[in-house]
Amino acid sequence: MKQRSWSDVALNVWGVAVLVFLFLPILVIIVSSFNTGRLLVAWDAFGFDAFGALVTKPAIQDAVMVSIQTGLIAALLATLLGTLAGIAMARHPGRWAFWFIGLLLLVSVTPEIVDAVALLPWLVFLGQDLGIGLFNDGIVRLVIGHSLFSVAVVSYIVRARLIGLEGQLEEASADLYARPLTTFRRVTLPLAMPAVLAGFLLSFTLSLDNTVIAAFVQVSGTTPWPVYVLSALRSGLRPEIAAVSTIMLLLTLVALALVAVVLRRAGDSATQIARTMTGN
């Protein structure tokens, strides 16, 4: 048996330490969700009382439902726009695509606080100054704010999927006198569908934990879950906050697992799955 070098051992220990540092806070939240005490920081006893708050407390119910509703609508909007943009960049490259990718990159790297500060006066101008009542609706505001970054993510993912696939099938469809819309519906879209589904699920998970933009653009009566947690800091975090956060974490993990399953069923390798999910 070959003896391992000290550098290999040190790297393994360092890797484990990094993983513990990253995931220990999450583990603490999961364990704290089973606390029956009044405050999160004071352990009382083990129990499932905190999970009942999702049923017994209307404020928590409303916050969770607003987050899920906003996440689904924002994911649908981002998937629609991002899919069309990704297909266009992959199948019609050119100078315009270079500049368009630059704009998407700008959206991706812009700090959320900058987006939030820019969105708030713009939505107020549209809703109040111009009198467009649609932009006074809290769900509409949240959907717009949450879908900005997600559109760029979906565009990257769909483009990455189609860039690696030749366009001969679409060319063959055109040679057989299929209309462009028929080719798109029967050839291009099925080829891109794994990436489309992956983009939808990732957009949904990104919307669930969006806090900065949501805190700026939300209106009374449509407070999403992250903003509710932020406001709960003033009175002290309670175990039900950890319990619902644990449920939201599981929901996020399930969505990410579905992304991997969809791409795996499409025949992608682990490397291709990682590239698709990161838009490379």
UniProtKB/TrEMBL annotation:
Family, per entry: Belongs to the binding-protein-dependent transport system permease family. CysTW subfamily.
Subcellular location: Cell membrane
Alphabetical UniProt keywords: Cell membrane, Membrane, Transmembrane, Transmembrane helix, Transport
Source organism (scientific name): Agromyces indicus
Residue ranges of domain ABC transmembrane type-1 in the record: 64-259
SUPFAM superfamilies: MetI-like (SSF161098)
Name of the featured protein: ABC transporter permease
Alphabetized InterPro entries for the sequence: Bact_Polyamine_Transport, MetI-like, MetI-like_sf
Pfam families named in the record: BPD_transp_1
Organism placement in taxonomy: Bacteria, Bacillati, Actinomycetota, Actinomycetes, Micrococcales
Record bears the keyword RNA-binding: no
